[in-house]
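To fix ideas, we now present one chain and its tokenised fold:
***
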Amino acid sequence: MNTYPIKFEPILQEKIWGGSKLNTVLHKNCANDLVGESWEISGVQENISQVNNGEYKGLSIVDLLETHKEDFLGNKNYARFGNEFPLLIKFLDAKTNLSVQVHPDDTLAKEAHNSFGKTEMWYIMDHDEDAEIILGFKDETTESSVLENVNSSNVYDIFNTEKVTKGDAYYIPAGQIHAIGAGVLAAEIQQTSDITYRVYDWDRTDDAGNKRDLHIEESISASKKTLSDCKKSINPSFNTSSEIVQSDYFTTNIIDVKHQYIKNYSNLDSFVIFMCVEGTAVVGVDGNIENISTGETILIPANAELVTFNTESAKILEVYID
């Protein structure tokens, strides 16, 4: 496989809670002010990413997997996932609250949907004043049966809320009750799954006056007790991969790049994804370069070795499966 920094065409998703920041801040080509998600790299059926640069322009991520296999995904990853790309990479803009929700783990998702589960993480890129998220139950002894009776008068009594700050990161394992709140702009890394069980949707309706479906029985089955380590401690150093999350599903680090940084990936048996969350940089592989700026994403195939970054200043999320 000829290796270069691969970009994909963003897949823009309108959402009832979406806003304008993906357009005004991240410069996506949004048709309106209701775009909530930009799917940067996706292998989800009906939403398959297409390459938009270089030699493989016009090919899908499935084409790359089927043709280049281990060179693209890595030996262990290809043995584990075959021709299914294992991650869904997004930027997300919440003008209003997302639903209070939970996702199934691998076992439940396989049984109910023949799908991967959905463990995810968020990196907070920006936020409005006093923006917050919901994470778990306020009282850790609360039983999941309470989900049958969530309403506008008790939602903040039942669930734990936390105010967010730019640069915060949260790991959300499958089974964790959660919601991104109004005013949050985030990068999201997750397993390849689009399965969401809604617990409460703030009583909102669409233009036709219809409420979105809730999935109370499924949510009770999927939810697990609050986990105390959702918020991750980040201590970035210049020109170093600083760990945010290391899990069976993905590893995410942050690289605070200054001037030039060269990293050797020859011992990593995985593709690498770079999400630029601040600044701009030029990324080079095997003599091929590509610009990346805030809100853009690049994939480096697993057969790459040296990757070079040149920038005055940039913060880049580094994602792989090891």
The first strand starts at residue 11 and ends at 19. The radius of gyration is 19 Å. The CA atoms of residues 31 and 307 lie 35 Å apart.
